[in-house]
Design goal:
Length: about 130
């Protein structure tokens, strides 16, 4: 049973950067697709960025293109989300998700993921 633990959230000012980390315990990310989602109060959970652990291109939501970077730390069996130029509308709980490999177009579908972290709060405010 894979467990996901996120870290790195917090309070930031507009224009600041934060880096989120998601580490796996109870197993490795081999054969998984991984992604970050976020959910703001009163809104549905939405895809942020994701990729297969082994190969495949990274997919980003439009709002993250050029500002967010999804990466994999194979040594620590974790995935990272570097968020730059943060905006107040980026305020949300950010979740790490993992599911057994599926096609890239399906990365955006939260129903494809079997495992979820507990979430980490990101608040962007001046």
């Amino acid at each position: 049973q894979v467990q996901l633990v996120e870290s790195g959230g917090g309070l930031a000012r507009p224009g600041d950067s934060l880096r989120l980390s998601c580490a796996a315990s109870g197993g490795s990310f081999n054969s998984f697709s991984l992604a970050w989602f976020r959910q703001a109060p009163g809104k549905e959970r939405e895809f942020v960025a994701g990729s297969r652990w082994t190969g495949g291109a990274t997919r980003y939501a439009d709002f993250g293109q050029g500002r967010f970077t999804f990466s994999k730390d194979r040594l620590r069996n974790s995935v990272l989300l570097q968020m730059n130029s943060l905006r107040p509308e980026d305020t949300a709980v950010y979740y790490c998700a993992a599911g057994y490999n599926f096609r890239q177009p399906e990365l955006v579908d939260p129903d494809r993921y079997e495992y979820w972290g507990q979430g980490t709060q990101v608040t962007v405010s001046s």
